[in-house]
Design a protein that fits this description.
This protein is mostly helical and 57 residues long. The chain is built from 3 helices and no strands.
Length: 57
């Protein structure tokens, strides 16, 4: 599949802004890394889930 990474990131950011949830620079970098193949999508997902999950002890 041929696509321009920056165009994909911009499109996703636009969609998220419409939902009043704009991407942070960190989010955009994660997307770029996944699209470029420099980061594993499953690993990134687990990190984000862990970061945003409230765990009570």
């Amino acid at each position: 599949m041929v696509y321009d990474v920056e165009n994909v990131v911009e499109n996703i950011d636009f969609s998220m802004k419409m939902e009043d949830m704009p991407l942070t620079d960190e989010d955009k970098n994660r997307l770029r890394n996944c699209l470029n193949g420099t980061a594993d999508v499953d690993t990134i997902l687990q990190e984000v889930i862990k970061k945003h999950t409230l765990m009570e002890i």
